[in-house]
Amino acid sequence: MVTFSPIDLHAHSSVSDGTLTPAELVRRAAEQGVRVLALTDHDTVAGLTEADGEADRRGLHLVPAVEISSQWQGRDLHIVGLRVAPADRPLLDGLAWNQDQRRKRARTIAERLERAGVAGAMTVVEQAGESMPTRSHFARFLLESGAVSGFQQAFDRYLRRGRPGWARVDWMQMETAVRLIRGAGGIPVLAHPTAYGYTGAWMRRILTAFTEAGGEAIEVICGHAEVQRTQQATGYALRFGLKGSMGSDFHGPENPWVELGRLRAMPETVKPVWDDWPTALRP
Ligand code: MN
Ligand code: MN
Ligand code: MN
Predict the structure, then answer these.
(1) How many CA atoms are closer than 13 Å to the CA of 61, on its beta-carbon side?
(2) What is the pTM of this model?
(3) d(CA 7, CA 229)
(4) What span, in angstroms and rounded, lies between the C-alpha atoms of 68 and 81?
(5) Which pLDDT tens digit goes with each residue over 137-171?
(6) Upper half-sphere CA count for residue 216 (Cβ side, 13 Å)
(7) Integer Cα distance of 75 and 58 in angstroms
(8) Hey, which end of the chain has fewer CB within 10 Å, N or C?
(9) 67 C-alpha to center of ligand 2: Å?
(10) Which ligand neighbours the alpha carbon of 191 most closely?
(11) In angstroms, what is the span from residue 269 Cα to ligand 3's centroid?
């Protein structure tokens, strides 16, 4: 059953592909009753200062965090870093490298979409400016320009692998992401383990490598995932001796299925990632 959780360790702002500014996100979290919120924008910590200022005003504890795009054996993995030092130089350099890859990919996607007859796709890149042009931005553009009638349809028709707007990208290696997060004093968490669509055999290989690299936790509760997925993630946590994290992966109020702090309870068998955190940061 989805209930209320005062701790939400996965959320995005408009600094990456969310639709609320960092301050608006924190305000909404506070209104929902969330006391501990991690801002986990994709490959950037640029929203943390604004979010932290608003968190102070709202009496909410902001966990400085990031969601790093990475690869292992050619497969994409998202690694959340919780409680990272946002000014850590090697971390910032690593994020800048990923940002560069993302900008290159965005230009390729735009060129391919225009070639496929989607006029104006390059404006997505131009309008992004200093912020990060993600595939969600292209999906919203396709929706707003009437090329598709739904957000998911934008991925299915244009942006998925094998579709006209697909472009591969080489993110940093998973081991690098883990090392950078640890180097910045943070906790590496494998995000949404049941959302990748990899087989059980691949997930076991991935989790072995993640644990050996220094990974410490896994998201056991993600968004509104079904009970069966929670059970699967619980099994991974127990089998690989990983702590459990939980987060909504909130991107904005447009998605009625995901809300800040609306999460299942952490299974009692799993050691929560916040177990040894200061009292103020625990639910
Ligand atoms: Mn996203
Ligand atoms: Mn993710
Ligand atoms: Mn996310």
Answers:
(1) 17
(2) 0.93
(3) 20
(4) 8
(5) 999 999 999 999 998 999 999 999 999 999 999 99
(6) 19
(7) 40
(8) N
(9) 7
(10) 2
(11) 25
